[in-house]
Amino acid sequence: MTDSTLPRATTILPAGQWDPAGARDSITLDFDDRHRRRRRYTGGKGLSFLLDLPEATVLYDGDGLRCEDGTIIAVHAAPEPLVEVTSADPAHFARLAWHLGNRHLPAEIDAKRILIRDDHVITAMLRGLGATLRQVQAPFNPEGGAYGEHNRHTAHHHGPQEGHGHAHDHDHGHGHSHDHGHDHHHGDGHTHHGHRHG
């Protein structure tokens, strides 16, 4: 079958808003393979289909993909090798999160732990900062900002009055660090993601 004759999955059914019993097949993918716009996949039962979305979108564990012919494919997040970052002290934990966020790393954050991909430079930095690190196998669902895409489950919109008004000359979708020890100036009185600039 060519891509033009495959069933086209064009609609995402968010986890919890559809009945998984109605899925004809399923795909189990790591994070990179769940962040796509257009790609051919073959499900666990052999159903081949073309993911064909208007823009690159993160698929989450439990989402469904509806094809134009009504077929539904369930999405499962595959466990992958990650590093779990923890601290017994909440203020220290917040500082660790700040250091990781300052490096624009893909990170999954909850109240007790941060999950990141293994990177020897970053793990050495975290050890130096006193973090507790542990190798784990788990599905990876990093915050959307690391890839320049707002998380579709908690999305917000910048209207014309909320535009950023500045250029970014760096790519947010990479795995290396760069210094952000400078202030961004957005104009007097500009509010950006819950904190004030200017």
TrEMBL record:
Give the UniProt record's GO annotations in the biological process aspect: protein folding; protein-containing complex assembly; urea metabolic process
* Compartments, as annotated in UniProt: Cytoplasm
User: Per the database record, which ranges form the UreE urease accessory N-terminal domain?
Assistant: 12-73
Q: According to its UniProt entry, what is the function of this protein?
A: Involved in urease metallocenter assembly. Binds nickel. Probably functions as a nickel donor during metallocenter assembly.
Region of interest called Disordered, as start-end residue ranges on this chain: 140-198
What is the protein named? Urease accessory protein UreE
Pfam families named in the record: UreE_C (PF05194), UreE_N (PF02814)
Q: One GO molecular-function annotation for this sequence?
A: nickel cation binding
Bias (Basic and acidic residues) ranges: 159-191
